[in-house]
Each structure stands twice: as structure tokens, then as C-alpha cells.
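User: Can you recover a sequence for this backbone? Please restate the input before giving your answer.

Assistant: Of course. Working from this structure:
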């Protein structure tokens, strides 16, 4: 199934073409007010476990293994994945994250999981 799915840093301003904005981090990003975030949903439960997040530490050398481990966590997290899929059935969703690395973060991994799932 093809979804209208985008990924962007929460520090970028909301745009009219974002669709429903969903924060997929477990921890609220510093310096962002809830009003400025313009979220449809903060889906903390879809974020990687604290253990996996700390192990990864945004190390690009661990990226492939992080994606595999996170995918396994998502496979066992049907409720949160189902909630996100429900939003995607109704139009565009933009996954938001707070990490500095735009290529190696849980939102990018989650988007890849959803597109290949």
C-alpha cells in the first residue's frame, strides 16, 4: 500500500502541505511549544524503546542494525502502528522528530518500515 507520508524536523515551521503532523519521539523536543508544534498527535508509544534509543546514540555505523531492531519492536507494537496507519488512510501524515541527524533517526526508520510493510 502506498501512503502520502513525509518526514521532517519538528523545528521546521508547519506547512500547509504537512497534512496531519505526528511527533514520533518519546521525549518532547526542547524549545518547542505545543502550540508551535501544531500536532495532530504525539504518538510516544511508537518511538523506539529507551534501551534501543540509547544503544543507537545516533551513530551512523549502527544505522542498519538500528533499523532492524526498531522494525522488530514495531512488529510487536500493533496498537501504535495501527493508530498511525489509521491516520494514513485519511490523507497525508508528516512524521516529526527532534534529532539533529536528518538521515539517521527513528522517524526515517519508521517511514521506511511503513513503506515496506
Amino acid at each position: 500500500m502506498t501512503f502520502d507520508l513525509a518526514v521532517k524536523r519538528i523545528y521546521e515551521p508547519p506547512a500547509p502541505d504537512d497534512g496531519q503532523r505526528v511527533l514520533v519521539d518519546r521525549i518532547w523536543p526542547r524549545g518547542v511549544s505545543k502550540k508551535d508544534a501544531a500536532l495532530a498527535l504525539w504518538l510516544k508509544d511508537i518511538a523506539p524503546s529507551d534501551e534501543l534509543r540509547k544503544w543507537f546514540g545516533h551513530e551512523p555505523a549502527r544505522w542498519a542494525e538500528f533499523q532492524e531492531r526498531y522494525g522488530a519492536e514495531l512488529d510487536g507494537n500493533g496498537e501504535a502502528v495501527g493508530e498511525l496507519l489509521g491516520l494514513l488512510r485519511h490523507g497525508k501524515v508528516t512524521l516529526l522528530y527532534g534529532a539533529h541527524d536528518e538521515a539517521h533517526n527513528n522517524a526515517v526508520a519508521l517511514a521506511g518500515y511503513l513503506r515496506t510493510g
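That completes the design. The chain has five helices and four strands.
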